């Protein structure tokens, strides 16, 4: 039977603020355990939460960027459950009236396919603390520094149909929150976490199958693997006559499998009710409009500008604008060089990206600055070096051997564009290869390339390739 | 409406309240009374009335995003039964070693 995968994602984005959502404790990552957990975060009796204005603004920025319905009234609710890293016995979240309503996000699946993914809602809530389960004489250690850290939970519609689509959605969302600067998006530190609701159904069926919720996925790669594993598991189960049960499963990256979290389902009765400690948030239209004016250029707006200002293709523009850092690097390079934007785009999406990937380096840690790359591209533009030699220079620049000009002069890489010098070399080569010359003259035109190769070899690749072609053609006449 | 013994046991479990068999009957009676009161309120026609999220008709004040709390760990941990390396110690909760295993 042919199966269709149905995925909906819940993404928890940590909003970048100095203080917590309901208290004045710091949110800095990596502090000593419990040094940033105040009486409010600990759920001490008699304390009252007061909402952080920045979290409201950041949530609204997100809502406006995805064209969401923003309701004028929003309410906090208590989600009740017991867990040691949740001192109050409830999490302050939102239930009936979330701050951000229905919106959508367009994702690029490949060069020619764009898909619109529905976003059901996004709501504000507080994070819980962390439980450390090892090394405490059979007990668990609790660090409440993270308790009360502001989160925006973004819930998608079940619109995604493959692990690949889920990853494309996550990357687009990640790019958006970075552009908006509402979160640092740091996945290692848990600032961008994802739960995936996964089900399968026979192709053509309109009803959804029973879903499993996968938790604990904190990288794009793991999301893809976890979903693929889960889809295969469910199909195998159904095809062998079994049924999928609705449950929470945990992804284990080391074993690449999802496992049932036994016994958790019974507790899934959260008994939401409006939090009496917090009053409704009223957002008037004036506030919404003033937040709208603070929106920066968004990834898709930047992409359109790259297309219209620089004449780049839709896909090149999309790739370059996917992350704010990449887009800024590209624009700074274009500004600093005589090379065309298209050539800059080719280098950045080609060699530069390949090096970043190979060395697992973030663009912010690139050993090359936009100005250094610009200088290299200038030397190609003014014919000092060929495009091929430029790759050698790029290699040396990446290795920290200095600027393009320095490397070109110290390694003697300047292109040979002197006709008489080139002619001399060509003559020599033709003279030393009489057999090939005779074959060429007898119709072996493929040997043209052989001669070019010999000339390049003799000049260590420094001969101006265009001139070599022209001169060689003339000589072979 | 009279609540069943099962209902009350379930609610007690969710609230992590231990009820002895002797305590059960009075809780069933008292909770059922509260439900009756709610039932009584349900008979009022509220068509067209927007529910309030809070009994006071005022809105949430907002605070500026400023850190105002200092580290008071030592003071806070004085009332904790067990601490170690700055952590609160609690009976082991689940077998899983991942710290992401909370409800999020």
How would you sum up the global shape of chain B?
Answer: flat
User: Judging by the overall fold, what is the CATH architecture of the domain at 5-42 in chain B?
Assistant: Orthogonal Bundle
| Strand composition percent of chain B | 5-15%
**Which parts of chain B are unreliable, with pLDDT below 50 for 5 consecutive residues or more?**
96-104
Largest interface: A-B, 69 and 43 residues
- Average pLDDT metric of chain B: 87
Query: What's the pLDDT, averaged over the residues of chain A?
Result: 92
Question: What is the highest CATH level, the class of the domain at 5-42 in chain B?
Answer: Mainly Alpha
What is the total tally of β strands of chain A?
16
Strand order of the largest sheet of chain B: 2-3
Estimated helix fraction of chain B: 25-40%
Q: Give me the number of helical elements of chain B.
A: 3
| Strand residue content of chain A | 15-25%
Overview of the structural elements:
The complex is a heterodimer of chains A (477) and B (104). With 477 residues, chain A is of the alpha+beta class. Chain A folds into three domains: 9-189 and 261-291, no CATH class; 299-410, no CATH class; 419-476, Arc Repressor Mutant, subunit A. In chain A, 39% of the residues lie in helices and 20% in strands. Chain A is built from 15 helices and 16 strands. Chain A has helices at residues 53-65, 163-180, 220-239, 285-292, 299-310, 314-321, 324-336, 341-358, 370-381, 387-398, 404-410, 419-432, 434-441, 447-458, 465-476, and strands spanning 3-14, 51-52, 73-74, 77-80, 90-93, 103-110, 113-126, 130-136, 139-143, 150-156, 192-202, 212-217, 247-252, 257-260, 273-274, 281-282. In chain A, the strands form four sheets. An eight-stranded mixed β-sheet of chain A has the order 6-7-10-1-11-12-13-14. Chain A has a three-stranded antiparallel β-sheet with strand order 5-4-15, with no helix packed on it. In chain A, helix 7 crosses helix 9 (370-381). Chain B has 104 residues and is of the alpha+beta class. Chain B has a domain at 5-42: Orthogonal Bundle (Histone, subunit A). Chain B is 33% helix and 9% strand. Chain B has a two-stranded antiparallel sheet. Mean pLDDT of chain B is 87; it is low at 96-104. The chains are: A alpha+beta (477), B alpha+beta (104). Chains A and B meet through strand 2, helix 1, strand 8, strand 9 and strand 16 of A and strand 1, helix 3 and strand 3 of B. Strand 9 (139-143) of chain A pairs antiparallel with strand 3 (87-91) of chain B.
């Amino acid at each position: 039977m042919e199966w269709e995968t149905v995925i909906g994602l819940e993404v928890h984005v940590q909003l970048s603020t100095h203080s917590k959502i309901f208290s004045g404790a710091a949110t800095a990552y990596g502090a000593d355990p419990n040094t940033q957990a105040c009486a409010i975060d600990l759920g001490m009796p008699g304390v009252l939460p007061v909402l952080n204005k920045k979290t409201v603004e950041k949530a609204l920025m997100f809502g406006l960027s995805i064209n969401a319905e923003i309701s004028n009234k929003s309410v906090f609710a208590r989600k009740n459950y017991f867990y040691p890293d949740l001192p109050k016995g409830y999490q302050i979240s939102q239930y009936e009236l979330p701050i951000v309503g229905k919106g959508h996000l367009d994702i690029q699946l490949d060069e020619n396919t764009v898909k619109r993914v529905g976003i059901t809602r996004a709501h504000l809530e507080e994070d819980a603390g962390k439980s450390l389960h090892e090394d405490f004489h059979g007990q668990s250690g609790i660090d409440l520094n993270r308790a009360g850290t502001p989160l925006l939970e973004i819930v998608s519609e079940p619109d995604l149909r493959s692990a690949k689509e889920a990853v494309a959605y996550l990357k687009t969302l990640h790019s958006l929150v970075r552009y908006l600067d509402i979160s640092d998006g740091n996945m290692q530190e848990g600032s961008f976490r994802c739960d995936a609701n996964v089900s399968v159904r026979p192709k053509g069926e309109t009803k959804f199958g029973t879903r499993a919720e996968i938790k604990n996925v904190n990288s794009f790669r793991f999301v893809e693997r976890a979903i693929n594993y889960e889809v295969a598991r469910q199909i195998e189960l159904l095809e062998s006559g079994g049924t999928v049960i609705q449950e929470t499963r945990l992804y284990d990256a080391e074993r690449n499998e999802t496992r049932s979290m036994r016994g958790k389902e019974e507790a899934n009765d959260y008994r939401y009710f409006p939090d009496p400690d917090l009053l409704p948030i009223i957002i008037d239209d004036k506030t919404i409009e003033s937040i709208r004016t603070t929106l920066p250029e968004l990834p898709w707006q930047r992409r359109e500008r790259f297309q219209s200002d620089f004449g780049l293709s839709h896909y090149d523009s999309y790739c370059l604008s996917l992350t704010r850092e990449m887009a800024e690097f590209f624009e700074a390079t274009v500004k600093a060089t005589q090379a065309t934007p298209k050539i800059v785009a080719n280098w950045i999406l080609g060699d530069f990206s390949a090096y970043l990937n190979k060395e697992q380096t973030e663009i912010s840690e690139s050993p090359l600055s936009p100005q250094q790359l610009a200088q290299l591209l200038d030397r190609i533009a003014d014919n000092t070096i060929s495009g091929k030699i430029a790759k050698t220079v790029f290699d040396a620049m990446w290795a920290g051997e200095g600027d393009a000009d320095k490397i070109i002069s110290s390694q003697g890489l300047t292109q040979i564009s002197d006709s008489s010098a080139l002619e001399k070399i060509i003559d020599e080569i033709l003279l030393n290869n009489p057999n090939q010359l005779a074959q060429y003259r007898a119709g072996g035109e493929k040997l043209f390339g052989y001669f070019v190769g010999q000339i390049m070899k003799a000049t260590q690749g420094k001969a101006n390739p265009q001139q070599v072609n022209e001169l060689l053609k003339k000589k072979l006449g | 409406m009279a609540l069943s013994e099962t209902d009350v046991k379930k609610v007690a479990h969710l609230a992590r309240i231990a009820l002895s068999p002797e305590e059960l009957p009075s809780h069933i009676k008292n909770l059922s009374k509260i439900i009756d009161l709610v039932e009584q309120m349900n008979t009022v026609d509220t068509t067209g009335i927007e529910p309030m999220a809070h009994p006071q008709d005022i809105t949430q004040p907002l605070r500026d995003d400023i850190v105002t709390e200092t580290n008071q760990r030592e003071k806070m941990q004085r009332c904790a039964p067990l601490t170690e390396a700055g952590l609160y110690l609690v009976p082991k909760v689940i077998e899983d070693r991942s710290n992401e295993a909370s409800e999020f």
